[in-house]
User: Which sequence fits this backbone?
């Protein structure tokens, strides 16, 4: 489903505050590290997972609306926001473990997960590691389904990235960068759709500890050639898991074609494209975003996971391949295609 040019969309307006406004930050120590999170509302659990360099604050406008029907939890991932920033494991799998442990500490057994960008990769990994705790997936401009990614992120994965990020925070450089961003927007480029919010992420890295955590997280999933983690090889396991993909049609960070690739790889998934929108559709079209999420949750039943079904899916393998025949020429061609999309998987 896509927007239509020339028609006014319900998401063109802003969300109105609901209830007491933004959920306040709470803190919970898990494994000796302070984890910050926001929580609001009552009802079935919905977990909001932000992207690299971001924080739970990115969901502030969305949380009050969701909290009318659901218990909404938005963590600051370790190394982000107000959570601790240790020298630690910042892999996708480690973050999935961290989300599980926070939910366990809060007494939440199952949840619908909504993940944006890197957070979408964490949500997919969570569903892969803990399918019995996952009710639904909403993946927003998610990483992990192709090698392509914005060249700026590839550059930040290189040695010397800390110096580059520090330079962007210098007063003179900040002014020049903002002028460049305005030019990109005037020229109506795809990068111009996202440049302001991407720079805001840099502004949210005030010290060396924050920048180090950001770089360690990025390097876990991106190198100079692009994304290096994929879930495409195991997306077939999403059968029976209600999944919605939401993407900006002018996403300059993770191109729209990744949405169609993921949609094809995830049986029964639903795809929503926000035409004319960049990498943050829940910021640009919040009303439409909220309506789609609520409709998706209310119109689908939670995933019904069982060990027997999981085993059957594993034995059957991906559609289009023949289980038990790894040397088959067709299987080898499929594997080459997956390697072209990305080089390794999060396990």
Assistant:
């Amino acid at each position: 489903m896509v927007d239509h040019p020339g028609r006014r969309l319900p998401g063109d307006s802003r969300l109105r505050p609901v209830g007491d406004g933004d959920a306040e930050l709470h803190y919970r120590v898990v494994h000796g590290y302070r984890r910050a999170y926001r929580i609001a509302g009552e009802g079935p659990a919905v977990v909001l997972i932000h992207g690299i360099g971001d924080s739970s604050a990115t969901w502030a406008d969305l949380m009050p609306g969701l909290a009318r029907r659901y218990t909404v939890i938005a963590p600051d991932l370790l190394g982000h926001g107000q959570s601790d920033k240790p020298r630690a494991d910042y892999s996708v799998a480690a973050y999935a473990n961290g989300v599980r442990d926070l939910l366990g500490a809060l007494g939440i057994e199952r949840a619908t997960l909504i993940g944006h960008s890197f957070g979408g990769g964490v949500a997919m990994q969570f569903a892969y590691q803990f399918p019995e705790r996952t009710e639904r997936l909403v993946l927003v401009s998610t990483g992990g389904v192709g090698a392509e990614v914005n060249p700026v992120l590839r550059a930040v994965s290189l040695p010397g990235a800390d110096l580059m990020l520090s330079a962007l925070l210098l007063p003179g450089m900040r002014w020049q960068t903002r002028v460049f961003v305005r030019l990109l927007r005037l020229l109506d480029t795809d990068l111009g759709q996202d440049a302001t919010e991407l720079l805001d992420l840099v502004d949210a890295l005030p010290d060396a500890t924050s920048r180090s955590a950001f770089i360690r997280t990025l390097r876990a999933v991106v190198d100079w050639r692009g994304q290096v983690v994929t879930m495409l090889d195991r997306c077939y396991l999403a059968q029976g898991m209600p999944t919605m993909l939401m993407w900006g049609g002018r996403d300059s960070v993770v191109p729209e074609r990744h949405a169609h690739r993921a949609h094809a790889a995830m049986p029964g998934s639903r795809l929503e494209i926000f035409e004319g929108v960049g990498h943050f559709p829940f910021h640009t079209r919040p009303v439409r975003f909220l309506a789609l999420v609520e409709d998706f949750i209310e119109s689908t039943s939670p995933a019904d996971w069982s060990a027997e079904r999981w085993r059957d899916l594993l034995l059957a393998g991906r559609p289009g391949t023949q289980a038990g025949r790894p040397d088959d020429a067709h299987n080898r061609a499929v594997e080459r295609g997956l390697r072209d999309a990305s080089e390794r998987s999060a396990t």
